[in-house]
């Protein structure tokens, strides 16, 4: 075995192993990412929320900005196939798939997302306590209670260690805390910059073993004990569930809305396709895969069998990417995946057709194999690039004009093209190279090929012979 084949085998084994782990791991956690499947509104239903602006002077630009912020929040963890659109001059319609806690979802849509760390002066403040801080001494929660005067009798003012303005929003990511008494838990990672990072490092270094409270929007989220100094301004916020993590993440990452919004109505939306349609789609997809596999095996025989094995690896990698990115699966998204399967098979068809032609020209099997890949590569490359361009255009169109239903289709199709190039050019080629030493002339039928020797010309007779 040459080093080239060995390197390819190791690469295939590593990629396939990672895909298997992501798809089959019971914890549904890989590198701090939630790898559970996400289904769209058409497959599992959800809720519809109608938000109304309470600011009568809100402009059309402010409403559009609010719509974009909400769209970023609900799609922060993948292509959610959500509907976020303006309704009239002062309302926004939001449809969210698979939401189990409507109240928490609504809070995510209109929350402000201000994160602070405060010095609780040695106290462990109860979770949910509304506090006054040096950065926000008059929180709206206290102003809502009558009468309210921002004086000492309204409660102590706690020293803010960090300022929410110094939060690096690009560092706010979903994560999982590691170890500890409670084991691995959902979390949100963060990083403060500037003066806040310096103050956080100095305070935690000087107060190891003492409490420090995490405050979100002037409400105490938790008061953990400082175990070590946060020297780089980074850390994680542990939560109890993935839903709670997503809520905090979206508020911190996308900040405050430009205008105040209230919930006018909420209602439950059932799956638009229905369970029977979903099951029929799954059956149709399985039947399609089986028919394609049978065609490849019957027509191309042993290479077709290897192509089917590569197609199985393609499916594993695709589903792993859907889980890891993550991508919300909807009917259009599934259609994009099925279409990419056909394109993956098309690449193998081109390769095997060229292999047959080169072998019939008198090449030995190894040379015919290499020439088959080389001669078919330009056609595979050009068709893949053309499809990728189409996918990018569709995705940008859906992202810019709010036609979110085509974003899932474009993304699954584009990813499918990239993965199919890997399976066709790397996986199938490596498997055929490994099988080449077993080839014998009498076994050529296993490859669906045969020699076509040139026929000798018939002897010429009659006047023409002269």
Question: How would you characterize the overall build of this protein?
Answer:
With 466 residues, this protein is α+β, with helices and mostly antiparallel strands. The protein is built from twelve helices and 16 strands. The strands form five sheets. A five-stranded mixed sheet has the order 8-9-7-12-13, with no helix packed on it. Strands 5-6-4-15 form a four-stranded antiparallel sheet. Strand 12 (213-216) and strand 13 (219-222) form a beta hairpin. Helix 1 (3-24) crosses helix 9 (302-324), helix 1 packs across helix 12 (405-435) and helix 3 runs antiparallel to helix 7 (242-254). The protein is elongated.
Please supply descriptive tags for the structure shown above.
3 domains; Multidrug efflux transporter AcrB transmembrane fold; 49% helix; 12 helices; 16 strands; single chain; Gyrase A, domain 2; Alpha-Beta Plaits; alpha+beta; 466 residues
């Amino acid at each position: 075995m040459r080093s080239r084949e060995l390197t390819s085998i190791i690469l295939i084994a590593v990629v396939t192993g990672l895909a298997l782990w992501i798809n089959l791991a019971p914890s549904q956690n890989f590198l701090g990412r939630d790898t559970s499947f996400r289904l769209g509104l058409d497959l599992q239903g959800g809720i519809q929320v109608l938000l109304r602006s309470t600011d009568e002077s809100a402009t059309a630009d402010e409403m559009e900005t609010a719509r974009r912020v909400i769209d970023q929040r609900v799609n922060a963890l993948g292509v959610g196939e959500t509907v976020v659109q303006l309704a009239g001059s002062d309302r926004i319609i939001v449809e969210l798939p698979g939401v189990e806690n409507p109240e928490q979802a609504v809070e995510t849509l209109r929350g402000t997302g201000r994160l602070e760390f405060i010095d609780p002066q040695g106290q462990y403040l109860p979770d949910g306590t509304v506090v006054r801080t040096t950065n926000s001494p008059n929180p709206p929660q206290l102003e809502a209670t009558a009468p309210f005067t921002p004086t000492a009798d309204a409660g102590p003012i706690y020293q803010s260690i960090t300022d929410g303005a110094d939060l690096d929003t690009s560092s706010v990511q979903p994560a999982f805390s590691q170890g500890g008494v409670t084991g691995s838990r959902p979390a949100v990672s963060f990083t403060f910059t500037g003066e806040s990072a310096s103050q956080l490092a100095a305070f935690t270094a000087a107060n190891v073993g003492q409490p420090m409270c995490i405050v979100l929007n002037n409400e105490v989220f938790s008061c953990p004990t400082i175990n070590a100094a946060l020297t780089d301004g980074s850390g994680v916020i542990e939560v109890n569930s993935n839903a709670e993590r997503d809520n905090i993440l979206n508020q911190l990452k996308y900040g405050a809305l430009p205008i105040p919004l209230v919930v006018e109505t909420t209602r439950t939306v059932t799956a638009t396709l229905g369970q029977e349609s979903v099951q029929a789609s799954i059956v149709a997809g399985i039947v399609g895969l089986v028919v394609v596999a049978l065609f490849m095996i019957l027509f191309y025989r042993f290479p077709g069998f290897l192509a089917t094995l590569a197609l199985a690896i393609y499916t594993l990698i695709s589903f792993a990417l859907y889980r890891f990115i993550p991508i919300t699966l909807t009917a259009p998204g599934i259609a994009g995946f099925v279409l990419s399967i056909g394109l993956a098979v098309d690449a193998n068809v081109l390769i095997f057709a060229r292999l047959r032609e080169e072998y019939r020209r008198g090449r030995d099997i190894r040379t015919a194999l290499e020439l088959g890949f080389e001669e078919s590569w330009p056609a595979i490359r050009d068709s893949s690039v053309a499809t990728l361009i189409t996918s990018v255009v569709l995705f940008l169109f859906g992202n810019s004009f709010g036609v979110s239903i085509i974003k899932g289709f474009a993304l699954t199709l584009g990813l499918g093209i990239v993965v199919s190039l890997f399976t066709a050019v790397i996986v199938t080629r490596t498997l055929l190279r490994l099988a080449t030493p077993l080839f014998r002339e009498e076994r050529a039928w296993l490859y669906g090929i045969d020699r076509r020797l040139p026929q000798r010309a018939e002897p010429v007779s009659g006047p023409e012979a002269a």
